Each structure stands twice: as C-alpha cells, then as structure tokens.
Amino acid sequence: MKIARFEHQGQLRFGILDEEASELVVLFGDPLYTGLETKDERFKLDEVELLAPVIPRSKVVAFGRNYGEHAREFGNEVPDEPIMFLKPNTSVVGPGHAITLPPQSERVDHEVELAVVIGHVARNVPRNEAKQVIFGYTVANDVSARDLQQRDGQWSRAKGFDSFCPLGPWIETEFDATKGAISCSVGGEVRQSSDLSHQERSVETLVEFASSVFTLLPGDVILTGTPAGVGPLAEGDTVTCSIEGIGELSNPVIVRR
C-alpha cells in the first residue's frame, strides 16, 4: 500500500492512497508508531498538500557509488566496502517544495535514488533479516553541490544544505527493490535512466552495513545510490525523479538570495 503524509486545512495527517478514487483514506496517527487503523474520512488528492512522507527524527543514511556507471562517470570504481555518509533531517522536503541553490556553490546536481524507510529499532541486522526492519520505500533526490564535494574532500556540506533531500510522493510498503525503472528528468529532458537491478549492493546489504555501525531508528531513511547521468540544476528548472512501482517526485529549483 502507498502511505502519504499530507496537510489539509492546516492539519498534518497520514493516509493510505486509494489509487482508483485518487483519494487518501485518513489514518488515526503516524503509521510508524500507531499502526494502520483508518478513520471514516477521505480527501481527494487535489484537496491536500502532499508533504515528505517521513521526516526522520534521527538521520538520513546515504550510500555513494552503488551503480558502477555512476562511479565511472566521475573516474571512480565501485569501492570494496560501501561508502556511507549522513544527511541532516533538515535537508528533507516534500513533493512540490523548492530545492534552493545556495550561494556557496556554482554547481548543484540532481541524483535520483531509491529510499528505504526503517520501521523498527535495528542494530547489527544480518542481511537475511533486513526486510523485517523495513517499513517501506520512497523516491529520493540526493541533491549535491558537486564543486563543494570535490573541494572539501568529504560530503557533509555538499549534501547537507536545507532542501537537498526531497522525498516522496509517498511510501510504498510492498515493493520489490531488486528491479524496476529509475529515472530523472529536468524540464522534461531525461538525464538519468537505469534499473534498480544495476545496483552493486542490495538494500539488505546496505541495511546490514549501516546497522553494524550505528542503531537505526523508526523513520530513519537510507538512500541507496544513484545511476549515471547526474547533471546540474539551474534556477527555474523542475526536476522529476521517478521509480517504477512507487511514483514521481517533482520539485522546482530556486536560488537563495
């Protein structure tokens, strides 16, 4: 099922998507903590504002160079061990919310990624048990200030600006993360087009690796890497990230004055 987080008349709600009716069936609370009990209340999609389907209370855990072609487009190889870094939860925005280009950077790139939402406290989870701690999946854009990434030699500043982690449009709880089209377009021009089957390391492997380092908490998000074709964003662009079986995440691009 697809679970959305949304605002209606100033109230924050969660709901299950009824795709046939294009409606959201309202839940009693945050499904990560209160379950999936529904109310006798529905809203049309065009009556609500979709928000990021989850705002991590703790962290966004991201992995780099998990598609061989993307690693090689920057002159790198797939690393022997996963490359892991953190993005602050303040970088998260939802569908339709603006990606803001900061004055510190002259090149900010899009990076479409599959995002994994953790549903349970997880520490030292073996890969064959990883699915038990996953709540669902959504679409992410790991926005990156490429020049700062290269200049700093580490990735915290380049990937940590406010608005640099769009998520959405909802969480899909039943999803095969081993295959499916993944793409990104800017102004209607397709720039990234690949398949989840081209990931070098599986979702389960990444959950195992991350949870061997630190405890994963409900609502934490794992970004699983981007395919080749990343490119720059400019003021006035609209960037759309898409994963087959989940949906499309679109965001306008503005400049911070």
Automatic annotation (TrEMBL):
GO process terms (BP): carboxylic acid metabolic process
Record carries keyword Repressor: no
Cited SUPFAM superfamilies: FAH
Keyword terms, alphabetized: Hydrolase, Metal-binding
Keyword Ion transport belongs to the record: no
Residue intervals of the Fumarylacetoacetase-like C-terminal domain: 59-253
Classification via InterPro entries: FAH, Fumarylacetoacetase-like_C, Fumarylacetoacetase_C_sf, Rv2993c-like_N
Domain Rv2993c-like N-terminal, residue spans: 1-53
GO molecular function: hydrolase activity; isomerase activity; metal ion binding
Superkingdom of origin: Bacteria
Family membership noted in the UniProt record: Belongs to the FAH family.
Protein name per its UniProtKB record: Fumarylacetoacetate hydrolase family protein
Taxonomic lineage of the native organism: Bacteria, Bacillati, Actinomycetota, Actinomycetes, Micrococcales
